[in-house]
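Exercise 3.2. Students should predict the tertiary structure of the chain below and write it as C-alpha cells, then compare their answer with the key that follows.

Predict this chain's 3D structure.
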Amino acid sequence: MGPALCLLSAACFGAMAIFGKFAYETGVTPATALLVRFALAAAILAVLLALRPGLRRTGTAPSRRAVVIALGLGAVGYATQAGLYFAALQVMDASPLSLILYTYPVLVTVGAVLLGRDRLTPRRSAALVAASGGTLLVLLGAGGGSFHPLGALLAFGSAVTYTTYILIADTVVRELPPPVITTLVMTGAAGTFGARALVTGDVDLGFRAAGWWWLACIAVVSTVLAALAFFAGLRRSGPSSAAILSTFEPVVTAGLATLTLGESLTAAQLAGGVLVLASVAVLQTGSRDSEEVAAQTPGDVPIGDGHGPRDARGRVGHDRLGRRSAAARGTIVRARSEEFR
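Answer key:
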C-alpha cells in the first residue's frame, strides 16, 4: 500500500500543472489560486472530519507538539516552498526550475540516512539513481530554457524547504491520522496565504466562472486527495522511498500535457518515464523482500504496531516453532483494521 499511495499522490500532484494552466486561462492569478486552493481544501477536510468522526481516532491522544508541528508544516513549510517556487518562476523558465526542484529526492534520502531513519541499501540507491535519471530525461525532453542565478538559488531553496517539510512530517505522521494532519497542514497554509492577501491585496476573484471549476479540481484532486495519499504513503514507506516515488509526478504531467494540451512526448521523455517506473519496481521488490524476511524471522522484527502478547525478551508472542500465537495474530489483525479504518 505504501508505494501505491505515494504513486497516487504523485499522479494527483502531477495533474495540478494542467489544472493550473486551464485556471490561468480564465483569469485566475497565482496569488488567488494559492489562497483558494488551501482555503477550499481546509474547508472540505473539516467537513469530512465532522461527518466521519472515526477518521480522527488515534491509539492515543495526539500531543500538542504534534498539532503545532502539523500547523507549522502548512503555515511555514508549504507557504515558503510555494513562495520560493513562484518567485523563481518569475525569473527563469519552468524546465530548469523543475530540474533544480527535483533534487529533493536525493536531499530527502541523504537527510533520512544521516538522521538514522532510513538505510541507504543498494536497492534503494539503484532506485534513487533510476528515478533521478528518469526525471532528468523527462524534464530535459520538454526543451531547454533560460537559466538565471537568482532563480536557481530560489529554486534550490524551494527544494531544501520541501526536503525539510518531508523530514519533519515524518516525525508526526505516525502520531496523527492522515486526515487530521492533512487538515492541519491545509489550515496552516490557508492562514498564511489569507494573511498575505490582507496585507498585499493581490487576490482578485473577478475571473470567469469556469475558473472555479479548475480551482475545485486543484483543491480536491491535487491538494486534498494528493496530500492524504502522500501522508498515508509516507507513514508506510518512510521519507526516502516516498520522495523517490514522488518523481512519478513529472511523468504524469508530461503524459497529461500530451493528452490535453496537444504536446508531444519525445523519445527522451518516454525513456525517462520507463526509468522512473523501473525505480518503482525496484522499491516494491525491496519491500516485498523485507516482508518475507520479517515473516521468516520470528520475534526479531516488530509485527504490526508492535503491541500484543510478548515473551520474556519483550518479543511479540510466538510458539516454540516460531509461529505467532493466536493472541498475537488477533492483535495484529485488530491493529491493521484500525489503521486502515
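Discussion points: Confidence is low (pLDDT under 50) at residues 288-341. The chain has 13 helices and no strands.
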